Amino acid sequence: MRNATDESSVDARIRMPAGRLNMRKSGQDERLSTHRQGAWTFEFDKMEARVAAVRIRTEAIAEGLPAHQHPQGQLAMVLCGTVTCEVPGALWMAPLHGGLWIPGGVPHSLRVSAEGNVCFLFVEDAAAAMPQTCCSLSVSPLLRELILYLAALPEGAQREPQALRLHAVLLDQLARMPTEAMHLPVSDEPRLRRLIDALMRDPADRTTAAQWASRLAMSERTLTRLVQLEAGMSFGRWSQRLRLIVALQWLTAGLSVQQVAHGLGYDSVSAFIAMFKKAMGQPPARYLARRR
Fold first, then answer.
1. d(CA 44, CA 235)
2. C-alpha 104 chain-centroid distance
3. In 41-153, which ranges are E strands?
4. Which residues, in sequence order, are CB contacts of 57 under 8 Å at separation 6+?
5. HTH araC/xylS-type domain: from which residue to which, for each copy (predicted)?
6. How far is Cα 223 from Cα 88, in angstroms, rounded to an integer?
7. What would the pLDDT profile of 234-275 be if each residue is shown by its tens digit?
8. What angle do CA 19, 67, 106 make, to 5 degrees?
């Protein structure tokens, strides 16, 4: 997929963030935005302790950071709205009231939806036994409050004894959180790139594999093989996974089940609920209720 400045990706209203992300490790300063200074500013080479937390609140328009990387691992904890993250080969969505773990050194772009409220927790490499691949994490009430407390600390307070004790508890809790693999495999293969971008612009599109093959000037057999090779799943399963991720975005943004079902092109609300329940193990209303 393309970076967060590409308006043909998941959210066509994405704009560049209001701030800079300073990454001056080894003398580099990567300017990711030329807008006003703001909460997106963070200097990774000046972390005062093994962990650091910052809180991001977006306004009436979504914000994002284009592809970048840093040595620290990062947890995106969603308090309100949605966070999507693209890493090489996959698109992830952080669960509402949960978190998305991005290991250190992994190139990634981030998008925070309009009216979003997110905490980013940065963790030094080897500070905790964390997964070495991206994954969704559950966030317990205790871990949530620890992250919020650290994000509210004034600058310079991270090395105080009280904060250091909390860091130890936080890292212990973080390593215990259950993981979940909720992502969409993506590809930079040019023909599949066209397919991916089109479906992300219009997830209600019900064009068949045969019709897509014709548009992409290949046989249906070649297309299905290509999707299987690049995404590791069938065309039907892949397109359903895309709609599920979009559904989770829309539901957590406040749309009703009826609105989401209609927006994704389902013939009935019950058909959408059946798909969601099969994929997530519970209907949409119960899934959201357990995360509030």
1. 40
2. 15
3. 51-57, 63-68, 73-80, 83-87, 90-94, 99-102, 108-112, 117-123, 135-137
4. 39, 116, 117, 118
5. 193-290
6. 21
7. 999 998 888 888 888 788 767 899 999 999 999 999 999 999
8. 120
